[in-house]
Amino acid sequence: MRYRYHGYILLKRLFDIVFSILGLIVLFPLFFIMVLVIKLTSKGPVFYRGVRTGQYRILFRVLKFRTMEVDAEKKGGTTTATDDPRVTRIGRFMRRYKIDELPQLFNVLCGDMSIVGPRPEVTLYTQQYASDQEVILHVKPGITDLSSIEFIDLDDRVGVECPDEYFRNNILPVKNELRVQYAQKMTLWGDIKIIVRTAVRLFLKIINR
Fold first, then answer.
1. What φ, ψ does residue 94 adopt, rounded to 5°?
2. Which of 44, 90, 169, 181 is the most buried (most CB within 10 A)?
3. Which residues have C-beta within 8 Å of that of residue 186, sequence separation ≥ 6?
4. Average pLDDT estimate for 46-67
5. Which of 155, 19, 135 is nearest to 80 (CA)?
């Protein structure tokens, strides 16, 4: 079992490298367009580099296209609702279709993240993990996971009033349960199924808008 696990980790890393490189090449035109649009429609940097807790509690900066006004975290909580005034107009579009997450392919290529793995959280929440939830931090965080599929419409589900409180009480426990489930049972075939399910959910979200 030990050799099988190490073999899976090696294959997972190889997959991450190949997939992230191909993704960055294919998505380069979209990246170029988004850089121009962000610069032309709002003041501030193109990318957001938020601190997140990675594998073995090593902190790293997650890379996203900036969807909010500068210093947004100082003007509100960590959870964003649909009508959050801190979100820019183009930011709403990017968040709706997860375009803001695409730069995390660079995080994957650098080894901070994986294509599939528990979504990285802010230290505010990872510091509160119970002993049985520590397994989440034994694996690399990912761009997509079971919780990403379940809460693909997260901004809509947290509501407008007290989004941070709603997230902590109603969303976070479920997300952590799904993260633990993945960390305990992760397989290459399971990763492939998560990627396919994510693509299907995004496609359905696009055509149903």
1. -65, -40
2. 90
3. 8, 116, 117, 139
4. 96
5. 155
* Number of compact structural domains in the chain: 1
DSSP 8-state symbol, 121? B
Q: Can you give the residue range of the structural domain that contains 34?
A: 2-207
pLDDT score recorded for residue 18: 97
Residue with tokens 């979100």: 87
Lowest-confidence segment of 89-93, 109-113, 150-154, 155-159 by average pLDDT: 155-159
Mean pLDDT of all residues in 178-198: 94
Sign of CA dihedral 70, 75, 80, 81: negative
Compute, in degrees rounded to 10, the torsion defined by CA atoms 199, 201, 203, 204. 160
Question: How much helix, strand and coil, in percent to the nearest 5, is found in the chain?
Answer: 60, 10, 30
- Residue type (1 letter), 28: F
Instruction: Please tell me the pTM assigned to this model.
Output: 0.90
